[in-house]
Amino acid sequence: NPTARNAAQLAEILGLNAHDGMEMEFRVQLNKKIVDVVKKKGLTHVNVATLAGASRTRVTAILNGNTSGISTDLLLRILYALGYRIKASFLPNKIAA
């Protein structure tokens, strides 16, 4: 049985293309940061939902690692509401388009 150590490897195992793998990896990293910040700040799901203007149900799903049906925009909004912003870096792909 193949084992995935990150989202990119999981995408490959699932037969997804590189684009899907990159998006999956980005969303996983956003989710991890949100969970880490919430734990570090000792916030409840309700606290986070209130700060971000999101439903508690969606915040609970995110904090449980379930981002299915959750937009990347919402993940970014929650991260911003928690006091963080994204600093983007653009790197060339190994395979040029």
For the structure shown, list the relevant keywords.
5 helices, 59% helix, mainly alpha, 97 residues, globular
List the helices and strands and how they pair.
Blueprint: H1 7-13, H2 18-41, H3 45-52, H4 56-63, H5 72-81
Integer-rounded radius of gyration: 15 Å
Write the H/E string, N to C.
HHHHH
Low-confidence segments, given as residue ranges, are none
Number of helices: 5
- The class by helix and strand makeup works out as mainly alpha
Which outline best applies? Answer: globular
Q: Strand tally, please?
A: 0
Task: Work out the strand percent.
Answer: under 5%
Mean pLDDT: 89
Distance between the termini: 32 Å
Biggest pleated sheet: none
Residue share in helix: 55-70%
Account of the 3D structure:
The structure is a single chain. With about 100 residues, the protein is an all-alpha fold. It is built from five helices and no strands. Helix 3 crosses helix 5.
Outline of the structure:
By secondary structure, the chain is mostly helical.
